[in-house]
């Protein structure tokens, strides 16, 4: 006589684990959800920042990182790491911010090899004006996580740390 578990296994298609009690989503579904959430949140926040403050999400994030850095200055490498961009991507972003008068590039006397981005007064004002739009919209959208916010944040932090490229 077959065991009860064998009978259950015979009734389920082999590719449909979602019907098995306690089974989680397949990795492909989890990946899809992460990508969808990232894409949709990024697009929504980017659109709001463009519309209300004339700045992209990437530009805002660069300004914020510079504003939070000591003396409101950050190296291109620090920005690349903080923003998850390549050096070329950071160079392009900072170039746009320089053209808009929000950031200046400068070298320090201590190490002439390092190029820093420093906020201008206009950059400081722009990031201060755009922060409530960014933070308010992100907070509003993430309230949908409800009581799961801490669990999701912790889990994503672990995955992010494990996936970080070590140089």
TrEMBL record:
Start and end residues of each stretch annotated as Disordered: 1-23
Biological process, per Gene Ontology: response to stress
Keyword tags: DNA-binding
GO MF annotation terms: DNA binding; DNA-binding transcription factor activity
Gene3D superfamilies: Winged helix-like DNA-binding domain superfamily/Winged helix DNA-binding domain (1.10.10.10)
Domain HTH marR-type stretches: 27-161
InterPro entries, sorted: HTH_MarR-typ (IPR000835), MarR/SlyA-like (IPR039422), WH-like_DNA-bd_sf (IPR036388), WH_DNA-bd_sf (IPR036390)
Protein name according to UniProt: DNA-binding transcriptional regulator, MarR family
